[in-house]
Amino acid sequence: MLVNLSFLINKPTGITTYALNLIPHLRSLAPTLLISPVASRLVLSTQPPTQDSYYSIPPNLTPEQGTVGHLRRLFWTQLQLSQIYRQLQSQLLFSPVPEAPLYAHCRYIVTVHDLIPLRFPRLSPLTPYHRYYIPQVLNQAQHVICNSTATASDIINFFHISADKITPIPLAYDKKHFRWLGASQQNETRPYFIYIGRHDLHKNLHRLIAAFAKIPSYRDCELLLAGTGDRRYTPKLKAQSIELGIADRIKFLDYVPYEQLPILLNRAIALVFPSLWEGFGLPVLEAMACGTPVITSNLSSLPEVTGDAALLVNPYKVEEIAAAMESIVTDSQMRSHLSNLSLTRASQFSWEKTGLATVEVLKKFL
Questions:
Q1: Do residues 219 and 225 make contact, with C-beta atoms less than 8 angstroms apart?
Q2: Which of 172, 290, 302, 366 is the most exposed place for a label (fewest CB within 10 A)?
Q3: pTM for this structure?
Q4: What is the mean pLDDT of residues 231-247?
């Protein structure tokens, strides 16, 4: 079996995190990892040295090279990956992203994380990729894995793929990394809310900022936006905070290294994640694993992740987001209750469960 890791990036976000945590659980299938020398160092830095079988591929196929990187990877997938498959006499290709060689007589299974560019087509340059390429990939796949029942429903509704061909397998979190660090980690300065993620328009940060400006307690706390900025939207968010007179209360932290996230989450009074749509929502689960109260959307996969352990709001209504934030500030008993619920809920997820369920699917097609 081949595992396509051509997409791994050095600053892990959701898909890279998923792949890195899945690799150890695939070893029972003795896979060959298709990976660049740069990315192989990333794998070794996050896991103990192993006897994994590697096949070296070019290093310039990732989103870190921008649109050019995406295009190079798609051409490599179509023109080179099928040759590698035949050269190594493979039985199956597993790709943790929905990419595979078309019309090349390769048997493959892919993972779909979300179809957000189809739900918000005017907001994403990836809409043509999702509209024309991914349907062909899924139709020719032996099977499709996805990360939530919400994503499974999208695959069925957008692409008319049979439900029998789809297996939802929830994601998880690193239990050694994301955990409650104890009362000693309580924030000793001004209390803060935190958002973690990119500044894409569907992440709904303009409504989050507007909601923060409406809470009566905003002068007593801060809002931290941790995640890679976007030249199209981040300047507008900064201008909005100035216009609302709250620029001194909002901190744009850009990308936060992985090792710093648990402390930031433990010290926050809540994670606020009002996304308009998510395939899964890893930041929500990671926050709950730290015992951090969560305010998030009542749409898409997010209720699947939180269960009853979060405050769910309509992300299109600023007043609902603001009311939830104000209740977190003023009600310490609610914060404590949500913290306990979060820890209990998060304990139900593990990469071992995700990995074993994935292996069971792959074994059926080997």
A1: no
A2: 366
A3: 0.92
A4: 95
Structure tokens at 362: 């792959």
If DSSP states are collapsed to H, E and C, what string results for 290-357? CCCCEEEECCCCHHHHHCCCCEEECCCCHHHHHHHHHHHHHCHHHHHHHHHHHHHHHCCCCHHHHHHH
**pLDDT-derived band of residue 141, with 50, 70 and 90 as boundaries?**
very high
CATH number of the structural domain 183-346: 3.40.50.2000
3-state SS track over 38-82: HHHHHHHHHCCCCCCEEEECCCCCCHHHHHHHHHHHHHHHHHHHH
Contacts of 21 (CB under 8 A, 6+ apart): 172, 174, 351, 354, 355
Which tokens belong to 19?
């792949």
2-172+350-363 CATH, one of 3.40.50.2000, 3.20.20.70, 3.40.50.720, 2.60.120.340 = 3.40.50.2000
